[in-house]
Amino acid sequence: MNLIFLGAPGAGKGTQAKRAVEKYGIPQISTGDMLREAVAKGTELGKKAKEYMDKGELVPDEVVIGIVKERLQQPDCEKGFILDGFPRTLAQAEALDEMLKELGKKIDAVINIAVPEEEVVKRIVNRRTCKKCGAVYHLIYAPPKEDNKCDKCGGELYQRDDDKEETVRERYRVYKQNTEPLIEYYRKKGVLYDVDGTKDIEGVWEEVVSILDKIK
Ligand code: AP5
Ligand code: MG
Ligand code: ZN
Fold first, then answer.
1. pLDDT tens digits, one per residue of 166-179
2. CATH number of the structural domain spanning residue 123
3. Is 123:28 a contact under the CB 8 Å cutoff?
4. What is the total count of domains within the chain?
């Protein structure tokens, strides 16, 4: 299954993608996570990306397209993959079409997780992420058992640099302008599935599973 999880910042793409990795055994390809890894390592790419990410702007298309192209050629993508946070612009979507064509693959489903702006802000300002394993928590909706400590690996939890309210609102604006048009792009291709992202994590997951079990 070759999947795209589409949705505003904080819609729950990462949360649902991680569950799908467990259930279906295909890797999550999160451009956001890959860029943050490059930032943490202090690579040239990371330094360049950080300037955009801290402002809530998109990293240039050619940079992310290059990263995804390389990643999709790895052997673990042979049985399928979940793109989380890519594509985010029309140019990225078209580049993805090209890449998949070359690899003889196609997208089976685009899961569009819809959540309004105010809910997105509430979710993101209370998000905490594990420094070590990347697990995602929410101080109210999905709290860790022990304060500031990851349930899965004991790692320290931190708040992402771009998770301040002001930056979140800018990210949402960027989403509306650049990424929302992709909903129609994929609807026209007949691969779009809408999910009500305002339900709780379990409720959204049930919707996602019912779609994926049908196309699997
Ligand atoms: P990225 O890391 O992709 O961030 P994003 O798209 O803004 O999305 P988030 O990761 O913030 O949210 P999510 O949907 O994964 O939600 P989550 O599951 O964590 O990108 C960051 C930056 O990198 C971009 O701004 C850009 O600069 C750059 N970038 C990345 N990809 C790029 C690209 N393709 N092109 C150009 N630039 C790119 O959930 C959020 C919180 O809510 C958590 O606390 C979670 O526990 C909680 N939660 C989840 N679901 C629910 C629910 N149903 N009910 C209640 N709480 C919930
Ligand atoms: Mg995410
Ligand atoms: Zn952890």
1. 999 999 999 999 99
2. 3.40.50.300
3. no
4. 1
